[in-house]
Structures are given as structure tokens and as C-alpha cells.
Amino acid sequence: MGFAFIKHDTNLDFIGKRYWAYGISVLLILVGLASMFMGQGLKMGIDFAGGVIAQIQFEHPVKDEALKKSLDVPALPGISTQRFGDGDRDYLLRFSQSENANASQLRTALIDTLASAFPDNKAEIQRLEVVGPKVGADLTNKALAALYYSVLLIAVYISGRFEQRWMAGAIMAGALWGGMYLAGLTGLGMGWLVLLSLAITLVVCFFLKLNFALGAIVGLLHDVSITLGLLSVMGVEIDLNVMAALLTLVGYSLNDTIIVYDRLRENLRAAPQLTMSALINRSVNQTLSRTILTSGTTLLATLSLFVLGGGVIHDFALTMLIGVFVGTASSIYVSSAILLALGDSEFYTQRAQEGAKYERPGEHGVV
């Protein structure tokens, strides 16, 4: 007898509890929005906002308040301090870049300021990074564009893979790319362009009845918005490491969604007489073992990075920890539940039967 982590006859009513999941999701999104727009907002790292970051290590421990007070000088405008790692010896310093100052001049000014403030406590600069405002704006635009195009290509793939509507997906992608290009000529910022394009994508998917693609996109937006909101509440800076984690989460969440979608498509053909809610529950239960094992091993690896990886990778690991939880839940309660809201089993059975008309390679012995 083979080993089974979850019994094959498991029949948990996930869809029946979807309203509880909706309530939790709405609460988390509202808390995140309140933090981003009425609270401290998203803290953009120097990768996007520009400025200088320096990692320093003192010979002896230093108090936070004493360090910040002593470094509040004109040579280091807008200084902020953050403890780095364990103990009171390592700190990250962030400040605005002075005009016409290069990395060598900034290093010298920082060393002189630290030596003057702490003459009996030698400080060593272990890392110094300088990002100009133009570079930061360029990185911001590229990061937003990467998020948008990843979601758009996902919509095209899902439309063709599960609904056999590659042409509709391609037309949608071409129209949105052209619309985004034309809107860019108006001078709108990349952030507004991405929001506008995402809204158009959702509307197009709805009217073309690309339900699988619509469910996947809404699930991804759900994951990213909740993760960003919680990062804002915790005061985590959004830098390239966090952006890399968000893009990783987009792929990870989509992977779990596709597994559920694929099993749902098989069940639509095998048992078309069942209701849509029963079919979704059956599909989720049949893939439950795979979901728990995959998410569990990912959480263990990410938790190891969070605890043992050090300060440099701390924010990346934290973003992944939040995203794995949120992404696993959204595959069940968001991406799959949207299919239930947009159509009954008869609607999807007809789509599945249309897709089955395509002959698979080797079906009749000829490849």
C-alpha cells in the first residue's frame, strides 16, 4: 500500500466556508489600504526612492537614540537609522544624496561624522550604496511594468490552456499593449498606466467570459495587495529584494491555481452532472495532499531563510512567508470561487467538451 499524506476520500467543504475567507480577505485588504493611504504608507527603499544606504558596525554597542541624534547633521540630510541583525553594534543608515556628491565624498563625510560623534567607539563601513533619483524612478517603472506584463501573459496562457481561446487572449493582449502605449503618450505615470491596464484587463476578461483567466488574475491581485498591505503595516521597505519576492509569489500562486483548475477540468468531463460547488470541492480535496506538501516544504525553506539568512535577505523571506499563506488560500477561496460566481457546471461542461474535440498527439497511435 502506497503512502498517502491525505486520505483519498477526503471531503472537506471548502466552498461552503468561502464567506469566512471573503471576510478575512476584505479585512486584511482594508487594513493594508488604511496603512498605505492614511498611515505611514509604503516605505520605498533607495532602489526606488533614491538616496544612500550604509551598513556600519561599531566596536562597542550604541543606543538607537544616541546614534540618530549625533548623526543629525547637514552633511547627512534626512538621516534615518535602523538596527541590523542581532545586538547593538550593527546599523543601517539611510540619508538623502547631497548634490554633486560622489560615493567617495559620501564615504568620507560619513566616516568623519561618525568619528566626531563617537571618538571612543570606532565604526567601520561595511557597505555603501548610492542610487540617484533618476535611476530610482527608472527601476520603479520597470518593476511596475514587470508586474503588469506578467499578469497579462498569465491571462493569455490561462485563456488558451483551459478555454481553448488562444486567439481571444492574443487579441486582448495586443489591444491592451496598444492601449497602454497610447495612454503613455499622454504623460501618465507608470503606476496609473498599470492600474488602468489592469482594470481594462479585468473588464475584457469579464465580457469575453474568460472566467478561468479572470479568476487567476483576481487571485494574483488579491495576493499582491494583501502582501503589500501587511508589509506597509509592519513598516517593511519595498526594495528590489521585496519586488523579486512579489514576482516569485505571482508564479507560485499561479502554479497552485493551475493545479486546481486542471483537476477541475478533468472532473467537469468525468462528472458533469454534479453542481459547480461540488466539482470545485472535489478538485480541491483531490489536490489537497499536493498543496499541503508543496506549501509546507516552501514554508520550511522560507522560514529557514527568515531565521538564519541574516538581515540582507530578511525582507525577501518575510514577503515569501506572507505570500505563501495568502497565495495558497486564494487558489481555493478566490480563483476557484470566482468560477462558481460566474457560471454553473453546464456552462463549464460545454467549454470542456469543446476543448475535448481537439485530438491529442498519439491518440490514434500516430504522433
Automatic annotation (TrEMBL):
One of its GO terms (biological process) is protein transport by the Sec complex. It is a multi-pass membrane protein. It is found in: Cell membrane. Pfam families: Sec_GG, SecD_SecF_C. InterPro entries: SecD/SecF_arch_bac (IPR022813), SecD/SecF_bac (IPR022645), SecD/SecF_CS (IPR022646), SecD_SecF_C (IPR048634), SecF_bac (IPR005665). Residues 121-173, 193-343 form the Protein export membrane protein SecD/SecF C-terminal domain. Keywords: Cell membrane, Membrane, Protein transport, Translocation, Transmembrane, Transmembrane helix, Transport. The chain crosses the membrane at residues 20-38, 143-160, 166-185, 192-222, 292-314, 320-342. GO terms for molecular function: protein-transporting ATPase activity. Its main location: membrane. GO terms for cellular component: plasma membrane. Forms a complex with SecD. Part of the essential Sec protein translocation apparatus which comprises SecA, SecYEG and auxiliary proteins SecDF. Other proteins may also be involved. Part of the Sec protein translocase complex. Interacts with the SecYEG preprotein conducting channel. SecDF uses the proton motive force (PMF) to complete protein translocation after the ATP-dependent function of SecA. Belongs to the SecD/SecF family. SecF subfamily. This is Protein-export membrane protein SecF. It comes from uncultured Desulfovibrio sp. The gene is secF.
